[in-house]
Design goal:
It holds the Pfam family DUF1949. It comes from Limosilactobacillus albertensis. This is YigZ family protein. This protein is α+β, with helices and mostly antiparallel strands. The protein is built from five helices and ten strands. The strands form two sheets. Strands 1, 7, 8, 9 and 10 form a five-stranded antiparallel sheet that branches. A hairpin with a 5-residue loop joins strand 4 and strand 5.
């Protein structure tokens, strides 16, 4: 069974103060490296007086693209811990930028790693998670006499109706998860004794709240 495709439910920012330093994590969904770089540049421009704007991002269903930057912090104390937080949450297509306003007290390497990691993790929790599910549209053509039984079947099996068209027959469009397509088609065909016509339409991503 494949891992669910998870990402953040909403773009957000989270701030905490650690030994007088302000750590502000902004986390956002992205679709490309251009999106990531634009987000990073925007946050840097809005926080020109900050001491550091460190970042990490992951792109692709299999996280094919992974980038991170310490932006002046000691090597390995900011970008990598932030990237690890994204990996630990198993989220995809996101960028995290942690802005630090130095408060005058040095945290040491271990303290910095914890600060950047924890601030990123808290931002992820605040953003919430959603699961993106790939679905296909099925167009089911039935006679008017079969329409009510079809609607009952769809409700019984919790299948979402995308729309209906009325003509000589009724065409009911439904959304079906891709991994359930074969099963649903067979079930419909068996239930209605092959008295309906099924055609496959466009595919889409459906986003549903995710809780562990």
């Amino acid at each position: 069974m494949t891992e669910p495709y998870l990402t953040i439910a909403k773009n957000t920012s989270y701030e905490q103060v650690i030994k007088k330093s302000r750590f502000i994590c902004t986390i956002a969904r992205i679709a490309s490296e251009e999106d990531a770089q634009a987000t990073i540049a925007s946050i840097q421009a809005a926080n020109k007086k900050a001491n550091h704007n460190c970042y990490a991002y992951m792109l692709g269903d299999n996280d094919q693209i992974q980038r991170e930057s310490d932006n002046g912090e000691p090597s390995g104390t900011a970008g990598v811990p932030m990237l690890e937080s994204l990996k630990l949450a198993k989220i995809h297509d996101v960028v995290a930028v942690v802005t630090r306003y130095f408060g005058g007290i040095k945290l040491g390497a271990g303290g910095l790693i914890r600060a950047y990691s924890n601030t990123t993790t808290e931002a992820i929790h605040q953003a919430g998670l959603i699961q993106r599910v790939k679905q296909a549209t099925l167009k089911i053509t039935v006679s008017y006499s079969q329409h009510d039984p079809l609607l009952y079947y769809l409700k019984e099996n919790q299948l979402e109706i995308a729309g209906e068209e009325y003509g000589v027959n009724v065409v009911t469009s439904i959304y079906v998860n891709e991994d359930e397509l074969t099963m649903v088609k067979k079930s419909l065909t068996d239930r209605f004794n092959d008295q309906l016509q099924i055609t496959e339409g466009p595919h889409r991503f459906n986003e549903i709240p995710y809780t562990k």
